[in-house]
Amino acid sequence: MAAAAREGGGASAASVAGRAGAGPGRAGPGGRLAPMAAAPEPHEPEKKPFKLLGILDVENIPCARESVLYGSLGSVVAGLGHFLVTSRIRRSCDVGVGGFILVTLGCWCHCRYNFAKQRIQERIAREGIKNKILYESTHLDPERKIKSNSS
Amino acid sequence: MAYPFQLGLQDASSPIMEELMNFHDHTLMIVFLISSLVLYLISLMLTTKLIHTSTMDAQEVETIWTILPAIILILIALPSLRILYMMDEINNPVLTVKTMGHQWYWSYEYTDYEDLCFDSYMIPTNELKPGELRLLEVDNRIILPMELPIRMLISSEDVLHSWAIPSLGLKTDAIPGRLNQATISSNRPGVFYGQCSEICGSNHSFMPIVLEMIPLKFFENWSTSMT
């Protein structure tokens, strides 16, 4: 049973590469699978993403770029404003850094909250579309239930 | 799956992993802000007049650096606990698969309808076909239907192992004499790789896990052909 399973397991149905570009064979001219000495392995992206302090990927993390930019703006405004009022350089730098942290954190939390709400709405919409397609004209059709409740 | 020199998480293929990635981004932003603050404070230390030689107390700064970390910890803990409870939600799985860890391979049992059991050994490097992945391919993949919740019961026949698939956000210890449960739900079809994640002997690095998620129709054909 185990030996048969081992042989049968090699012919797995509809095997799809989980990552784009990782398929083992590609069709050559005439539609034949070209024999490959070594298929291209999944490789790291050609352009390395820019990471602030080496850790924060501002290009790919949603809301990161906006938060850091707004934080920088807030830092400059707060530091410069404090300096113009008090003419104290060191304290103004402290205010600038504090402003950067607070504004970045505030923008981040606000943006991520909206992002999470949007994701939930997308998920509901996706489920709704799937259910409509699946159950259209059946007794499970949600639109039929709404119409029967209203009539 | 992972690419060479990868530092970050793999792309998410399950709702839980998406939530974990969002939580990771959130925590990373907090870490970045704290690191910026510490970097600034260190730079301040480089220029100091060293005049406060008899400081007795500093009530204000002590209050700040007590309250602020507490707030930061709350900001981190609340999403973390939310995900923790989300991972344990009851979701009516349609299928139950048992996986047993052995030295040094995994065995899988689909016993809901018919008895289907097979072992999954790593394919040695000298037997790989062109294009296959070194130390990751197996002779028998575990094949499951996509977009459906599946219960995995994980245990071990000998020593501790751990059944892990990073792109689905799964890592569960396989403990002899104990049955651990995990729920798999994949958003999309594909092949997902993982490796044993608990030291279990000399070939601990050579017992990978390969999960193939396919549409239900193909899964039914496959399971019929296997029984």
Automatic annotation (TrEMBL), chain B:
Bilayer topology: Multi-pass membrane protein
This protein's UniProt keywords: Copper, Electron transport, Magnesium, Membrane, Metal-binding, Mitochondrion, Mitochondrion inner membrane, Respiratory chain, Translocase, Transmembrane, Transmembrane helix, Transport
GO CC aspect terms: mitochondrial inner membrane
Membrane-spanning intervals of the chain: 27-51, 63-85
Biological-process GO terms, alphabetical: ATP synthesis coupled electron transport
GO terms of molecular function: copper ion binding; cytochrome-c oxidase activity; oxidoreductase activity
Official protein name in the record: Cytochrome c oxidase subunit 2
Recorded name of the encoding gene: COX2
Span of domain Cytochrome oxidase subunit II copper A binding: 92-225
Organism encoding this protein: Psammomys obesus
Family: Belongs to the cytochrome c oxidase subunit 2 family.
InterPro entries on file: CcO_II, CcO_II-like_C, CcO_II_C, Copper_CuA, Cupredoxin, Cyt_c_oxidase_su2, Cyt_c_oxidase_su2_TM_dom, Cyt_c_oxidase_su2_TM_sf
Record function comment: Component of the cytochrome c oxidase, the last enzyme in the mitochondrial electron transport chain which drives oxidative phosphorylation. The respiratory chain contains 3 multisubunit complexes succinate dehydrogenase (complex II, CII), ubiquinol-cytochrome c oxidoreductase (cytochrome b-c1 complex, complex III, CIII) and cytochrome c oxidase (complex IV, CIV), that cooperate to transfer electrons derived from NADH and succinate to molecular oxygen, creating an electrochemical gradient over the inner membrane that drives transmembrane transport and the ATP synthase.
Main location group: mitochondrion
Pfam families per record: COX2 (PF00116), COX2_TM (PF02790)
Cofactor(s) demanded: Cu cation
